[in-house]
Design goal:
With 945 residues, the chain is mainly alpha-helical. α7 (155-162) packs antiparallel against α8 and α43 (850-867) packs parallel to α45. It folds into 7 domains: 2-152, Arc Repressor Mutant, subunit A (Orthogonal Bundle); 242-380, Rossmann fold (3-Layer(aba) Sandwich); 467-578, Orthogonal Bundle (Arc Repressor Mutant, subunit A), CATH 1.10.10; 579-629 and 644-649; 652-747; 754-831; 856-944. The protein has a 5-stranded parallel beta sheet with strand order 6-7-8-5-9, sandwiched between helices. Strands 1-2 form a two-stranded antiparallel ribbon. Strands 3-4 form a two-stranded antiparallel ribbon. The relative contact order is 0.04. The chain has 47 helices and 11 strands.
Length: 945
Amino acid sequence: MYFGVLGPLLVRTDTGVPVAVPDTKVRLLLLDLLANLGTPVSADRLIEDLWGSRPPRNATGTLQARVSQLRSALDRAEPGSRALVQHGPAGYLLATEVVDSNLFERYMRAGRLRQALELWRGQPYADVLDHEFARAPREHLEGLYLTALEHTDDVLQRTTALLPQRPLDERLHAVHLKALYRAGRQHEALRAYADLRAALSEELGADAGPELAALHRAILRHDPSLQRSPTLPAPLNPLVGRADTLAVVQQQLATNRLVTLVGPGGVGKTRLALEVGRGIGTVLPELGQGGVRLVELAALRDGDVLEALATALDLRDESGDLLPRLLDSLRHRELLLILDNCEHLGPADLVQRLLVSAPGLKVLATSREALGVPGEQVVEVPPLTPAAAAELFQARAGITEDVTAICERLDGIPLALELAATRVRSLGVQGLAERLDDRFRLLSGGKAGPERQRTLRATIDWSWDLLAADERRMLRSLAVHAGTFSLEAAAQVSELPEQVLLALVDKSLVVATAGRYRLLESIAAYSLEKLDPAEEATLRQRHASYYLGLAQQAELHGERQREWLHRLDQEVANFRLLPPSLELANALAWYWYLRGRYGEARRTLAAALDLPGQPPALRAQAAVWLAGMTATDAQGTDVAAVGDSALAAVGDDPHALWFLTMTRWAYGDPGVLSERIDRAIAHFTERDDRWGLAAALSTRAQLNIVHADLDAMQRDSRRSLELFEELDDDWGRLQATYALIVAAEISGDYPTATAYLEDAVRHAEDLGLWTEVSFRTAGLGRIAMLTGDYARADELHEQARRLAVEQSNKSAEEYAEVGLGLSARRQGRLDDAERHFSMWLPWLEQVGGTPGIGFINNQLGYIAEQRGDFAAARRLHERGLELGRRTGDKRAIALALEGLAGATEDPGRALSLLAEASALRQQVGVPLPPAERFDVERVISRARR
């Protein structure tokens, strides 16, 4: 059965037959259940919603009659559908997910905006505009609708058509004003704002709201934030002479999933691919904003392709095998992936696997040749026509002279034209033409290889001959870098002044982008050929020495943390070129940890530890890092033994004690971990190591969560936060506030917990620590659930879950999924809750998550009890009790006792168990806050009855 609320009420069978719902009150009842989809609605509330302050004499009986009418209407249309209207202890529930509003939100989450908008038939819940029960879901859907409108290509036309129907809707006007501004019609936007202000004053006696007023000010000052954020590099110059080819590529992408641009080096494949990506909304509007990712492969080797894909997709690297997680991350996404410069890697098998696993994925590749994947559509990118080549050359050289002969000699290759144009200032058109004559005769035959390669080589050879000796040395030295590099790196590795590099930028042989530099692919390959073995060995040694020194001087603690994280992010490709060494692995280990690149850390540390003849101190330090990184993914590893072995090698080193405790605090033996962290704190205090002390205190606060020792948690956390504030360490702030958040939550101080969580989300986003963003967002979802805002709770937990999946972080995903389960159980959706909980038990068993296993067993016990299966409930709660006693967590023991109270049919026994649980909670000073007494109050009520 299909239900529609995006406009007037719509009901039809699975085969599309309309279903008549008789009687106004029956339709009102159905709309009420749809507005509260997934949440039981009590009879009292339904009576109030249907009849307001004038209910019928026998209101309950009349409501039951209306429910019967609704069931009969559904059943007549499709036998068996009466079961969709369910009744339970919490009230009435419509058990369906096939609602246009659900589909609308699903399309929105996937970025399929065009399909979402096609579902929109008018104002949501149009039949009940004057009923309060529909107000919140209507506003939520209308907000999503405006978001979708804002990111469609025809937003201006759509908002213009809607405004007469909603002349005073400020949110709609805001979208319309932005659309006018982005269309270059600033004056019209300002006039429309003035008209709205006048209408608001005349009709409502009010002025425009603060958000609309802020938008007006932004339009006045041409605020850059009004422009859509680009997902691809912005072009410096307009695309010339590619309109026909561009149209062909767009047409092929509209109907095929893999399109490969082929052609000679320098012909403009990359430039064309980026142009296609920037205009993809006109061809594939369902991708939505941000539906394009660029993966530049030119600087990579075969083994680095998966890492590059994971980085482009913001996928967290935490295990050795990236491919399954990469496929899982893409499986449900709508995305265009641009793979640039594929020819040297031969990624045909990988591309085929990506396409097979991800039905919403399209790939646009650039290569010297076809990939050879079934279903591939190949588009040849030809040289520019003579007219287009002349237009390009004249534009780049800033001249109007006739350059037809030069363009013909350069075969219309855009790269050759760009390079040649830079010399017009010094040689003039005639001098340039004379030099080209000499060069083409020199390379006119006798060498193997395709003609297009010889033509491009002629262009580069010509540029090379025009360089001074120092410029040639610099260009050769730049070839040993990967990806982009800094001005300082170029000077250090080449041992030449920075001005030599800047001269090459002026001559268009080096590309400058956002304060960094890179070589075009063909220039890099050409320069490498110019290196003799001895010179290359020297340059690579200098390159390794420079980047090792950079890693060792990185300040990832304190006020420069953000700056150095960004700088190391820029140098990842160069670090990956270096041979394995303990010095490099130890220098980068904390960076890898902060960025969540545990898999890369483990691989590099293990490779370095396998090298013979390494200093014992460096080996011991690397072993500690490796043990800590192993603790983040314990599958198949005796983590405790690895950690003990590493500690034995370094002795009583406080940093090792802290790190190996911090990475295992939620899974290891509490007694062992507590003893270690106390020793670390003593050593840090003795050494006056403020950063180490702050970190260790935050970890001890987390260890005390198990015992719910609020005083210890708050004391250590506040001291830790105080120290990290003095050090201006944002990662430390996140660590220090974690236990404070937990303490506030279990004490029922939700405003304080929310303030800490919102601040943590801001800091984590600023640092790019997306797993932390996921955890803290799920934390906000917990608070929303505890305060009764289930819609917000589900939204936040789902947002956190999706982010965790994209980061491939199982721990964060489990935390968010459990939150969805808690919310579902509170709302009476027991099947959903059971699914959310049960799926994580195998993983928790693998990683040794004893507290989590106990908690989930208790939640499953509550579900069994709510279904009336008391025997199953007792078994599950007894398992939770056993695990709680094993960890010594009195709050976990109390939770299990409360569950057992609900699972007994003896009222006296139930109240006795509740009293025992209450006494335990009082012992640790954290009685259940009112918002967490959901199950206890149910048990008390039943026992008293």
